[in-house]
């Protein structure tokens, strides 16, 4: 009476799976961003090396989130690295990247990291509430890796800016 039929009501598991899918999209986009940023950052050795590490980490995170989704009977809705990211990467390599964008790319990465971390916190809380202890363990590890990367970026932001200015 006045309520939705039970079959159409969203459950906490539905919300969790939707958030996992959303996070998979976030991680996939982070991989795409790293791929397109690599050519522009190759002149800054430390930043380029960190970006390579972040690319490896991002691909690992995509894999782990995919495994968690599969464990709950769901599969990723899209390929991990889209055709558009491949085209963007090829274009960046052909044009040698745009060095003028290093500062903007770095700022974008800082903002994107905050989004990733908030998403991880949401997933960890949902998994905890649902009693998915193994998911909490994995998601916490992934979040901690992301925090380490964000901390590196914060600690090195000044030197990234200095290196950029010195190269002008």
Please tell me about this protein's structure.
The protein is mostly helical and 168 residues long. It has one domain (11-167): Ferritin, core subunit, four-helix bundle (Ferritin), CATH 1.20.1260.10. It has five helices and no strands. The chain has helices spanning 12-41, 45-71, 83-95, 102-130, 133-167. The longest helix has 35 residues, at 133-167. The chain is elongated and about 60 Å long. 26% of the residues are buried. Pfam families: DUF892.
The number of helical segments is 5
The CATH topology: Ferritin
Strand content: under 5%
Taken in chain order, the helices and strands follow as HHHHH
CATH superfamily: Ferritin, core subunit, four-helix bundle
Class from secondary-structure proportions: mainly alpha
Instruction: Please bin the fraction of helical residues.
Output: over 70%
Shape: elongated
CATH class membership? Mainly Alpha
Give the strand tally: 0
Low-pLDDT parts are 80-99
The major β-sheet equals:
none
- Taking all Cα atoms into account, the compactness measure Rg is 18 Å
